[in-house]
Amino acid sequence: MSDHVHTTADLTKNQSLVMGALAKASGPLSAYTILDELRDHGFRAPLQVYRALDKLVEYGLVHRLESLNAFVACSHAECEGHGQTAFTICQSCGDVTELADDDLAVRLKSLAARSGFTVRHSTVELRGTCRDCAAG
Amino acid sequence: MSDHVHTTADLTKNQSLVMGALAKASGPLSAYTILDELRDHGFRAPLQVYRALDKLVEYGLVHRLESLNAFVACSHAECEGHGQTAFTICQSCGDVTELADDDLAVRLKSLAARSGFTVRHSTVELRGTCRDCAAG
DNA sequence: ATCGCACACGTTATACCATTACACAATCAT
DNA sequence: ATGATTGTGTAATGGTATAACGTGTGCGAT
Predict the structure, then answer these.
(1) How many domains does chain A have?
(2) Are B13 and B43 in the same domain?
(3) How far apart are the first and last CA of chain B?
(4) What residue numbers bound the domain in which A102 lies?
(5) Å from the B58 CA to the D2 C1'
(6) Do A115 and B88 lie within an 8 Å CB cutoff?
């Protein structure tokens, strides 16, 4: 591992398997769903999934959705670099979309800074109705 | 219950007990912590807590912190009305502070609206370091 | 070369968070 | 009174996450 930018090429076997499961999924997956999908590949215990997820999140390849207790592959080719990500979560169809707005990041940081708080990581999850479900 | 504005006076016995536990706590409490604190008052099962919490959250008297799986009493006397709340969560001392910024709400709504998404509820949780911990 | 270290991995057990299902009681409008 | 709604109590279960242990492997420093 030559530097701190990770791509899928750098991953260990377990990390690759978990990343693969998330990448081919259409939406977020829970750790236990991933476990079930990987039993054929030798996965036996939750910890194998959680350990891989921890690293993938650390590398910025995967995001954790706090309000769903689930995980999604980052939709940006190289996620490293944009500190702020927001998600929309449709309560009707379950669709999750990743929004990137650098200005939002700045705004949140400065809002927090007003009370002397330094932001390290931010969670922004918007629940509501997506365009398709509103139309249907 | 004459209208849809709830205050602590409107609460049922269980709701009052849970509200009381949260109100006198210095920070967020998990449902099971609340359960333990209320055993002396007859609480026996998690569901008693969760049912009360559901209502209190619905009434806007309590907020749920998704990233902590915990709950806090709203710090504003009358929380009903400000649609958007953001939290700072200090990773060092655990302190949780509620920020209100109406402009942020507008901004998030319009950001989502750009992709046709209608926001019903938003979660904004900023993790980092509070002023005191940065100074210490 | 081999020792020590860091790191990924495997397994079991456990802790923690939340809901389902069923039954009973209180309240209120008709 | 009756039925609808809401709150309550209890037991059982399901879902999420970590602790604690041990093993193996790669690799740099001595």
Answers:
(1) 2
(2) yes
(3) 48
(4) 86-135
(5) 31
(6) yes
Burial of A82 by CB count in 10 Å (0-12 exposed, 13-18 middle, 19+ buried)?
A: middle
Considering only the beta carbons, identify the residue of A111, A116, A121 that sits closest to B104. Answer: A111
> What is the rounded average pLDDT of the residues A127-134?
96
The CATH number assigned to the domain holding B31 equals 1.10.10.10
- Is residue B116 scored above 50 in pLDDT? yes
What's the pLDDT tens digit per position in B76-108?
765 555 567 899 999 999 999 999 888 898 999
CB distance B88–A116 less than 8 Å? no
Which chain B residues are closer than 8 Å to A115 by Cβ?
88, 97, 99, 131
Strand partners, A119: B128
For residue B130, being part of any structural domain is answered with yes
Instruction: Report which of A118, A23, A9, A96 is spatially closest to residue B127, judged by C-alpha positions.
Output: A118
Q: What pLDDT, in 10s, does the model give residues A77-122?
A: 665 555 678 999 999 999 999 998 888 989 999 999 999 999 999 9
